[in-house]
Design brief:
The structure holds 2 protein chains of 2 kinds. Helices cover 14% and strands 49% of the residues of chain A. Chain A is mainly beta. Chain A has one domain. Chain B is built from 8 helices and 12 strands. In chain B, helix 4 (114-127) packs across helix 5. The longest helix of chain B is centred in the C-terminal third of the chain and has 19 residues, at 229-247. The model of chain B has no long low-confidence stretch (mean pLDDT 90). Classes of the chains: A mainly beta, B alpha/beta.
Chain lengths: 237, 253
């Protein structure tokens, strides 16, 4: 059962999955040592600033989903063997931006960021990810996967910055801005799916495929994003 | 059922790929198109399906006497045209079950109950020796070549098309799998005698299982010879070079 978070400054001391309804503009999270926790943050038209400290041997996963959001996330890996995973899935109808800064402050820390945005509007959308590994902080692992799919006239900008001062680091990075694969659309349509239905399936896979969701969480997200499910794809957006 | 009348096709770069191709497929018939690599066989399959990379410059494609040239890919699929792809692609994140259920709803034009759907898929999967877990995996993700081809035939069995285009179904299939797949197609034809097949292949091996009424030889974007199954056997024996000499065409470049 998910627990509801409501305090503006929170120390997570117990393992668990948490569901976050965010109304305050800023929130500070401290993940206590050896805690294994995840938070799902869902909401549209949100602007937030999250500061997260992950202590030694803690494992923390943050999943963010929303339409027209502006999120800033600052992550400090404060203890050895701290692990952090961020999955951001955004839809841009009018405006959107996502900025993350990851600080590997202790050795043998790891971060994995998967940021996917679909741009349905005419404006530019943004993913900016900065990651830092200072000298003498050895054995860090950094992985980033940033993708923007513009479906209409809007554009996308991905700004990945890796500031790695320690050679003993493992770093992977990808940035991709393109439409959905024509071959995938063709394949789906050869089975009778109208173009918008085929596109809907690809959108859902792109946004939710990387997330670790329970069934009820997926249903909430579908409702909040107004994806509506396969029965109602015509009413989305 | 399907009439292709003197169709001329160009790619986007205006390169001509098909030259005045004509073929007529009636209900229940099996046609095979054979030919060496790069002669336009797969292009013809994609053109019939309405692929946007190709433009029909002249000629006509009729489905039950009505032109389908202006119809989109999915509209043609909903008419009952099914293309079993040569290289079925994988689509990460879209599960086979969600895809199939959505496709079935699109083709039938009405919702399909989950119980009926599961029964259909379970039966078809068992008949094709596909593991039950495939349903919850992404489309063709981490599937072997053989599993991908079986997945195409599973989709065929669920969606129940009227014209099935098999584009090099035999490539990537081992002997046993080919036998299973062909048996499933034959069973489908028995249950749906009005269904027709258009088999695109290099080799006559698949035609031993699905014996064609007509065999067409394609060369340089044109059909150069049409006959019965004996033509496929002749190709097996003499190769396409032998056919070239018979039709007065020069040997392969």
């Amino acid at each position: 059962m998910n627990k509801l978070l409501w305090k503006p400054v929170i120390e997570i001391q117990e393992d668990g999955r948490y569901f976050l309804f965010l109304s305050p503009a800023s929130l500070q999270l401290v993940i206590a040592p050896f805690v294994n926790a995840s938070i799902l943050l869902v909401g549209n038209q949100l602007s937030s600033s999250l500061t997260i400290e992950v202590m030694e041997h803690a494992c923390f996963c943050l999943q963010i989903v929303g339409v027209d959001t502006h999120h800033q996330v600052r992550i400090s890996l404060e203890g050895e063997e701290a692990k952090f995973t961020l999955v951001y899935s955004g839809i841009c109808c009018k405006e959107q931006s996502f900025q993350a800064k990851v600080y590997h402050l202790k050795p043998h820390t790891s971060s994995s960021l998967v940021n996917h945005v679909i741009n349905l509007g005419k404006e530019d959308c943004l993913i900016q990810v900065d990651a830092y590994v200072p000298k003498k902080i050895k054995g860090c692992v950094l992985q980033q996967d940033n993708k923007i799919i513009p479906l209409k006239d809007g554009r996308g900008t991905i700004l990945p910055n890796l500031y790695i001062e320690e050679f003993d680091s493992f770093v992977q990075h990808s940035a991709y801005i393109a439409k959905f694969s024509k071959d995938a659309l063709f394949y789906l349509r050869t089975r009778g799916l109208p173009e918008e239905t085929a596109q809907f399936l690809l959108m859902k896979a792109f946004l939710l495929g990387n997330m670790n969701l329970e069934k009820e969480e997926e249903q909430i997200i579908m409702e909040i994003l107004k994806l509506g499910g396969e029965e109602n794809e015509s009413r989305r957006f | 059922m399907l009439e292709v009348k003197q169709v001329v096709v160009e790619a986007k770069d205006h390169k001509r790929i098909l030259n005045s191709v004509s073929i007529s497929i009636n209900e229940g018939e099996i046609h095979a198109i054979m030919g060496p690599n790069g002669t336009g066989k797969s292009t013809l399959a994609k053109v019939l399906m309405g692929h946007e990379d190709y433009r029909v410059v002249s000629g006509e494609i009729l489905w039950n006497h009505k032109s389908i040239l202006s119809l989109s890919v999915d509209e043609r699929a909903r008419l009952g045209i099914f293309l079993a792809n040569q290289n079925p692609i994988s689509i990460e994140g879209v599960s086979n079950s969600e895809f199939l259920k959505t496709a079935l709803r699109s083709v039938r034009g009405e919702n399909v109950g989950i119980y009926e759907f599961m029964k259909l898929v379970e039966k078809a999967g068992n008949e094709l020796n596909l593991p039950a877990s495939f349903l919850h995996r992404s489309i063709n993700q981490d599937f072997s070549g053989g599993e991908r081809k079986k997945n195409e035939i599973l989709q065929m069995k669920i969606l129940k098309p009227k014209l099935i285009i098999l584009d090099e179904l035999d490539s990537g299939l081992d002997v046993d799998s080919l036998k299973i797949v062909c048996q499933n197609i034959e069973d489908y034809r028995q249950e749906n005698p009005e269904a027709s097949l258009l088999i695109i292949t290099h080799y006559s091996r698949i035609l031993e299982y699905l014996i064609p009424d007509y065999v067409h030889i394609m060369k340089n974007g044109s059909i150069v010879e049409t006959s019965d199954f004996s033509l496929a056997k002749r190709i097996e024996k003499e190769g396409y070079v032998g056919i070239n000499s018979m039709t007065g065409m020069e040997k392969d470049e």
